[in-house]
Amino acid sequence: MKNVSILVPESSVVQAIVDPQYLFHTVNQILTVAGREPLFDVQLVGATKEVKLNGGTFSVHTDRQLKDVRKTDLIFIPALFGDMPEAIALNRALVPWIREQYDNGAEVASLCVGAFLLASTGLLDGKKCSTHWGFMNEFRQMFPNVEVVDGAIITEEHRIYSSGGANSYWNLLLHLVEKYSDRETAILASKYFAIDIDRENQSAFAMFKGQKNHTDEAVIKAQEYIEANIAEKISIDDLADMASVGRRSFERRFKIATNNTVLEYIQRVRIEAAKRSFENSRKNINEVMFAVGYTDTKAFRTVFKKITGLTPVEYRNKYNKQPVAA
Fold this sequence. Notes:
By secondary structure, this protein is an alpha/beta fold. It has two domains: 2-204, Class I glutamine amidotransferase (GATase) domain (Rossmann fold, 3-Layer(aba) Sandwich); 217-319, Orthogonal Bundle (Arc Repressor Mutant, subunit A). It has helices spanning 14-33, 84-90, 94-103, 115-120, 136-142, 169-180, 183-193, 217-228, 236-242, 247-258, 262-280, 285-291, 297-308, 312-319; strands spanning 2-7, 40-46, 50-53, 58-61, 64-65, 74-77, 107-110, 128-129, 147-148, 154-157, 160-163. The strands form three sheets. It has a seven-stranded mixed β-sheet with strand order 5-2-1-6-7-11-10, sandwiched between helices.
């Protein structure tokens, strides 16, 4: 029997507590129906007996308190809500317990932005991690010693797991079900919950926001020019001249400010524009490609798939919002 401890932090997302609890209880039922023994002992664990969430709208009663759990096999850290530094501060009491259990052999999994609390333990330093695509820049700023993997649904390293944004954590939950039981049980669970078990990344859902939360005015000027001229041929030398900065210095400052090289930034801006066009128009692939500054179909397809995880055709077919004429 594997002991599964689902933490109930202050300022956490109720659904990210309920979903793993529901899943592992369901897996036990699947195993029982198949004539096998239940595999998981699932308990809600918190610093107190009762944790009020969402401004008191929800109240979660824990099964056990931290002081009563001497040893566990798997810890889930659910997604947090609101201001991340504040949420971490509210949950300082959980940090030494998480570290102690990890040192005793437990595996630790963060769901979505639960990665912020996991990173605050120091256990992620020097390791890879995924979190919600919309919080990656903030995460990098707060935890520079952690390697954030863009677009990853799941990361796994040295008994530590993390998942991408929102419902991406279901893929991590199913991954762990498969690890602790078998592929057949994980597939049955995925069918029960209607989850695509093998989705590989969250890139298709990411909305590139321009990454302008910095104070380097020369870089901001270059970013604004790129975004206003996506169909034009843009050279790094021209951007550096526009910013009145030497090329090498410009490239270094751009990378520091945006966490992208200049070429990566241009590609991401163009592909974001292409995504919006595929979502909101009936333009064909070539029309969109030319509109965002590409003239080579193969190059456009390669960059598009690298950034979104889908080909242009796959993305258009999946996310286009326009009704098809009868």
